[in-house]
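Severity: low
Component: inverse-folding endpoint
Summary: output formatting inconsistent between runs
Steps to reproduce: submit the following structure tokens with default settings.
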């Protein structure tokens, strides 16, 4: 009888040990939650125009810094999922793009291309330019005619509020201003512009009419174009000032 009770007690102890052991294994096997992350890429032009791009969590915290490559692409390889403010630092002479807010998920579309302005482009696109003086020289075999138009001295407001605006996306607009000289004139005329590689000439319009840039500062734009037809050479020298 004693032997039977002893055997029964040992069996209960063994069962209890197995039960405790099983509980311990169950706790250890509980899965751990891992933070989800996503990659974000973007591009910019020219390829040397940005110094850094950072992503700061919308609620505050440590900013993440993107890696760059030489082709003008930046990458955040692993951002925790959430909302971020993307901020840019431009190289000297370039305009700094505005910060952007974006939700980052596990998968993300590429950010839009950023086009930054060169120093001379910045000078060109910052003001609205009003025509100040235009000198037209006409040359043929027999004579040279010079005609000067001083828009600063013209009476009335209709000429003095006309302007041309160059834009960062390489479009431009001629605007007839608030006071129109002729009611039938269009209010605006759209066109395009681009610099040559060395930025000493402007190519305007669909025909890429070539203008030499004689002056380009914050206070004056002076451009010259020359054309020849039927043995007559016409040169137009135009000076603009900020409106």
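Observed output (run 2 of 3):
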């Amino acid at each position: 009888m004693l032997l039977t009770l002893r055997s029964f007690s040992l069996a209960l102890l063994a069962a209890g040990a197995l039960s405790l052991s099983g509980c311990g294994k169950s706790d250890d096997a509980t899965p751990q939650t891992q933070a989800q992350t996503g990659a974000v890429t973007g591009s910019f032009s020219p390829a040397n125009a940005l110094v850094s791009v950072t992503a700061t969590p919308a609620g505050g915290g440590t900013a993440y810094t993107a890696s760059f490559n030489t082709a003008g692409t930046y990458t955040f390889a692993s951002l925790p999922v959430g909302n971020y403010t993307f901020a840019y630092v431009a190289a000297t002479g370039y305009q700094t793009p505005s910060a952007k807010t974006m939700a980052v998920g596990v998968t993300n579309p590429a950010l839009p291309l950023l086009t930054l302005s060169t120093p001379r482009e910045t000078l060109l696109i910052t003001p609205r330019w009003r025509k100040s003086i235009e000198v037209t020289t006409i040359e043929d075999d027999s004579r040279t005619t010079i005609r000067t138009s001083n828009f600063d001295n013209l009476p009335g407001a209709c000429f003095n509020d006309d302007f041309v605006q160059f834009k960062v996306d390489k479009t431009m607009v001629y605007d007839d201003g608030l006071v129109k000289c002729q009611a039938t004139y269009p209010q605006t005329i759209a066109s395009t512009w681009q610099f040559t590689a060395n930025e000493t000439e402007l190519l305007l319009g669909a025909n890429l009419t070539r203008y030499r840039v004689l002056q380009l500062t914050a206070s004056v734009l002076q451009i010259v174009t020359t054309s020849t037809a039927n043995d007559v050479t016409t040169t137009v020298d135009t000076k603009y000032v900020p409106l």
